[in-house]
Amino acid sequence: MTLGRFTPETTRLDDAARAGWLYYVAGNTQDEIARKLGVSRQSAQRLVSLAMSEKLVKVRIDHPIAACMDLSSGLIERFGLRFCEVVPSDPDAPDLLTGVAIAAATELEHRLKLPEPQIIALGTGRALKACVEQLPRMSCPQHRIVSLLGNMMADGSATPYNATIRMADRVGAQHYPYPLPVLARDCEELRLLQGQEAVRHTLELCGRADLTLVGIGQMGRSAPLYVDGFISDAEMDILEAAGATGEITSWIYDAQGLKIDTDFNSRVASAPLPEASERDVIAVAVGQVKVPAIRAALAGNLINGLVTNETTAILLLG
Amino acid sequence: MTLGRFTPETTRLDDAARAGWLYYVAGNTQDEIARKLGVSRQSAQRLVSLAMSEKLVKVRIDHPIAACMDLSSGLIERFGLRFCEVVPSDPDAPDLLTGVAIAAATELEHRLKLPEPQIIALGTGRALKACVEQLPRMSCPQHRIVSLLGNMMADGSATPYNATIRMADRVGAQHYPYPLPVLARDCEELRLLQGQEAVRHTLELCGRADLTLVGIGQMGRSAPLYVDGFISDAEMDILEAAGATGEITSWIYDAQGLKIDTDFNSRVASAPLPEASERDVIAVAVGQVKVPAIRAALAGNLINGLVTNETTAILLLG
DNA sequence: TTGCTGAGCGAACATTTGCCCATGCGTTAA
DNA sequence: TTAACGCATGGGCAAATGTTCGCTCAGCAA
User: Fold this and answer.
1) B3: chain A residues, CB-CB within 8 Å
2) Min CA distance, B30 vs chain A (Å)?
3) Is-contact A194 A200, C-beta < 8 A?
4) Which segments in chain A show pLDDT lower than 70?
5) Which nucleotide is nearest to A43 (CA to C1')?
6) A276 and A164 within one domain
7) Does strand C come within 7 Å of the CB of A196?
8) D12 C1': nearest CA residue
């Protein structure tokens, strides 16, 4: 029974979903769909591809591919992980996020289906955003989604990689955005900001999250923190000289996975890195360029779960 | 690092899964997959279709419409329907007629656009009236609209739910109101009335209608027949004791969809229940309170098409 | 009214996919 | 040893799908 609004956009997406269903679920040809929906063949095609591009169509492969299983058990053993999922790589697109996003979303969905209330803490970044986009719509008012860090860029605008709001919207859970910018101006300001009641509450939630899902950032000129303007050229040089190897929720760590002692880290407003020994902390990360950062995070037990792909897994074990 | 078994079957399914992944997740063409897996294009195609036939590939559509399509194919299969349309429900107004009305009107419109002359027979009721109101104005002089029953209330006044006149007016078709009251005083009078030439002609039209569109009435104190004063308190008790479960064009049937043998049915002046095996007979019905009546109509093959909403469909399949 | 613009449509064309069939290779039974 | 059989393979073709391009039409400003 249709609700009040009959915007063209709504009906168009409805039709797209219908066409997608008829195509992918019912196995109709586009000609048949065209006939059933009373449109031309081309329009049916457009609807089907709209369903695709709007990500209404979710495909997953339900088979443990032996090579990936080997890699994941290798990673679990080598780094003492609780959870590890390795998905196939496309040799021509080894950094494609879709595969890991689907795998991580499947794990998330699994957690969300639990009747017991869960606290799920999220970082930011392309990888997490891709994960959240793979989540189906559901209704989980018993859970809480909390952000581990703010998403304000240097100029005051918001980064487009905020996963929390989108996820809470999709799964119908209560959510807690992180009420601070990514970086404070200095330690003094940071202490001031963290004194706020709302901040303390959010931090407390982050601390007892049942599942923490984060991305991993590399250093260098391709670093997310550099690209998004949180780290200047000069500062990046200093950081790399100090051994900076990777970053999780903006906390920069060295090759041993230890938080390095720099001005930058002293201004990071994010929630503290979670204690990965007690809670589930799963990272989603893919790509050759991230390998040192991932390896360091594994070495330092910053995480105890990993979702990655075949090529990255091979490099991590190599 | 090897797993236990490496039967040809296992590796073949592995390859199928990989091919399916490259195809559906990474979006490669079968040529690319062939190159990447080092097999011929045809073999790649076989792997992809194997992944499909082995159901390694799970597709789902993430849109409310998808749930409706699942429900409608469920209803078609369970009850052997020719036609079924399930529209989304508004959780806050599960009995709202607008949605089903639009859906049924769309189907009607589809029929009306046929160049071949159609006979369309209509029942009465709120649902049908709502359908007709959703019809656009058009000009279809080639078709004929005929009423399946009268709309005279006990006191001689007309019920407000007459759909035929309004529809004929909207679509510019010839129309045939039903020239009798809903109920005769007794069998004798009924026989007399049905002897009239006009009545016989109308009945004949009803009998060969290409499409029959009806509502479904529940029993009990909320029954349309009770509310509109066609059934008294005492009679309703008798009917329910006799197993009355629902009603289509005033013909009352039991839980198996069989017309029950009572005084009431012997006085019903409506056209006979259509032979749903030969013609299209579509019911429009929504609401928890109507579920037993709809289920009985489906069980007894009184109808072979259904337009309903999500919540009702779930109850019917539950 | 006229002209502009952008969305949507469908014809035509290019690409991809699905399927049948002839071929060849290995295996088995006579 | 050889004929027969099973079966994976790739050629080739028809169907299905994706894309481009020019057209129309509604909406809108001059």
Assistant:
1) 66, 69-70
2) 13
3) yes
4) 1-10, 153-156, 276
5) C9
6) yes
7) no
8) B42
CATH number at residue B290: 3.40.50.1360
Domain extent at residue B14: 8-53
Query: Are A2 and B99 inside 8 Å of each other by CB?
Result: yes
Task: Please name every residue paired with B263 in a beta bridge, in sequence order, or none if there are none.
Answer: none
Q: Is A31 within 7 A of strand D by CB distance?
A: yes
- Pairwise CB contact (< 8 Å): A22 & B94: no
Contacts of A318 in chain B (CB under 8 A): none
Partners of residue B82 on adjacent β-strands: none
**B97 and B236, same structural domain?**
yes
* A43 Cβ nearer than 7 Å to chain D strand: no
**Residue A1 located in a structural domain:** no
- Answer whether residue B147 is part of any domain: yes
* Residue whose CA lies closest to nucleotide C15 C1': B29
The answer to whether A137 contacts B62, with C-beta atoms less than 8 Å apart, is: yes
Beta bridge partners of B3: none
Q: Cβ contacts (< 8 Å) between A55 and chain B: which residues? A: 62
**A136 and A207, same structural domain?**
yes
In a domain, A286, yes or no: yes
For residue range A143-181, what is the model confidence (pLDDT) as tens digits? 999 999 988 765 667 777 788 988 998 998 999 998 888
Higher pLDDT, A12 or B301: B301
Taking an 8 Å cut-off on Cβ atoms, the answer to whether B102 and A13 are in contact is: no
pLDDT in tens, B121-173: 999 999 999 898 888 777 888 899 999 998 776 566 777 777 888 888 888 88
Residue contact B17–A61, C-beta within 8 A: yes
Say whether both A13 and A141 belong to one domain.
no
Q: Is the CB of A36 under 7 A from strand D?
A: no
Chain C bases near protein Cβ (<7 Å): 8-12, 15-20
DSSP assignment of chain A, as one string?
---S---HHHHHHHHHHHHHIIIIIS---HHHHHHHHTS-HHHHHHHHHHHHHTT-EEEEE-S--HHHHHHHHHHHHHHT-SEEEEE--BTTBTT-SHHHHHHHHHHHHHHHT-SS--EEEE--SHHHHHHHHTPPP---TT-EEEESS--B-TTSPBPTT--HHHHHHHHT-EEE---S-SB-SSHHHHHHHHTSHHHHHHHHHHHT-SEEEEE-EE-STT-HHHHTTSS-HHHHHHHHHTT--EEETTEEE-TTSPBP-SHHHHHB-SPPPP-TTTSEEEEE--SGGGHHHHHHHHHTTS-SEEEEEHHHHHHHH-
Q: Please tell me if residue B102 touches chain A, with a CB cutoff of 8 Å.
A: yes
The answer to whether the CB atoms of A62 and B73 lie below 8 A apart is no
Domain assignment of residue B202, yes or no: yes
